[in-house]
Amino acid sequence: MEVNNETDKFELMYSVFMLIFGFGIILCFLIAIGFMIYIYNILFLFYCWPILVGIWLGIFRKSDKGYEMELKSEDAKKLNRIIEKITKKTGQKKPYKIILSEGSGIAVSGLFRKKLIIGLATLQLLDEKDLLSIIAHEYGHFAKKDTVLGYFTYRIQNFIELQEEINRQNLTFSFTIVIYLPTWIFFFLLSKYYTLISLWYSRRVEYRADRFAADLVGEKEFANALVKYCVISEIFENIIPQYILHFLQQNKQLVNIYDYMNPIYTEENIKNSFKDVLSDKSNWWSTHPSISERLEALNIKSVDINMDTNLKDFFDNQKKYEEEASEVMTQKMEYWAHLIAASQTPEG
Question: What span, in angstroms and rounded, lies between the C-alpha atoms of 19 and 173?
Fold first, then answer.
């Protein structure tokens, strides 16, 4: 079945609008800062250096990353065969890198060099047919150049939110409140407004990527794979961190958290998660439409997931990747547990 790789005119116009609007605001802000430096010179630099630091970090700071292990091509022969099937059907190129993450999400990123990011947890429970369907959705983002727009919108949003945070932290100074209060209000309101329009667009492109995948593998097959993927992800993200915290409280560390995956996918957990996934609703601040909304857009009335809880091997040297990811996930959980404990400790 052929898929439509052409970009819709509305999508193109809206993308251009988002970029012009976002970068236009940043440009106006930079001009205003330059004007204030020109007038007040050293005095402005002395009191407002956090804003200048925020400008630099907001534009050039790299995003925070968790565990991202590049999957070597010699270890990914089976996974590469699935990707090759999609590239032949869509005419898209293979991703520059396949990245393994410690969690359950599957996503794409990259401005010029595209990356396919696959969560180790999900990879081990999806069968080949389901995995092909989910990756086909991600290739819908590649085909429509969503990662390009996503890169720039992230930079804009990062800039706005960082300025808002810097101005909020500096409101305690009595003299500089004259400068920081107006800019904090400005960026607070701007961040909310820009977030609304960017998230609306984000939900729209998810529908588009769903249609792309459904045209490629079939509507029913994609819908079943989508719900199965969400059920797997929800159970893993809700339960596995509890295992890690339990062991941390005993001053122990799990060598391989994925050894505990199979027991958590009980019939009861799957049934409860299935209900939760289908009953969830999106709102204005959601990055994705709800699963029920996505199924409705595909005109799918019912889904049937066959959950085979036997763990799959899609690449070689899997244990090595799992143990490295387990260490990173444990460190992250230990860090957050420390912050929570510190926040709950009464001040002396």
Answer: 34
Taking 80 as the threshold, does the pLDDT of residue 30 lie above it? Answer: no
Mean pLDDT (the chain) is 82
Q: What is the pLDDT of residues 214-224, one digit of tens each?
A: 999 999 999 99
13/5 Cα distance (integer angstroms):
17
C-alpha 231/C-alpha 233 separation (Å) is: 5
Beta-sheet strand order (sheet of 69-70): 69-70, 97-101, 115-119, 106-109
Is residue 25 a contact partner of residue 59, using CB atoms and an 8 Å limit?
no
Q: Rounded CA gap, 76 and 209, in Å?
A: 25
Q: Phi and psi of 310, rounded to 5°?
A: -75, 125
Helix H, strand E, coil C: the string for 122-149 is HHCCCCHHHHHHHHHHHHHHHHCCHHHH
Closest CA relative to residue 162, chosen from 63, 304, 297, 270: 63
Nearest Cα residue to 222 out of 142, 294, 325: 294
pLDDT score of 22 more than 70: yes
Rounded to a whole number, what is the largest CA-CA distance in the chain?
Answer: 69
The full set of domain ranges for the chain reads 219-344
Tens of pLDDT, residue by residue over 163-182, are 777 666 666 655 566 666 77
Q: Tell whether the torsion through CA atoms of 69, 339, 157 and 291 is positive or negative.
A: positive
Determine the residue type at 313: D
Whether 331 shows a pLDDT value over 90: the answer reads no
State how far the Cα of 14 lies from the Cα of 9, in Å rounded to an integer.
9
Residues 180, 47: Cα–Cα separation, whole Å: 10
d(CA 139, CA 145): 10
pLDDT for 84-107, tens place per residue?
A: 999 988 888 889 889 988 889 999
Query: pTM of the predicted model, to two decimals?
Result: 0.83
Helices (H), the chain: 9-40, 42-60, 77-90, 120-123, 128-143, 146-169, 177-217, 219-249, 261-264, 267-279, 291-297, 318-344
| pLDDT tens, position by position, 141-153 | 998 888 888 888 8
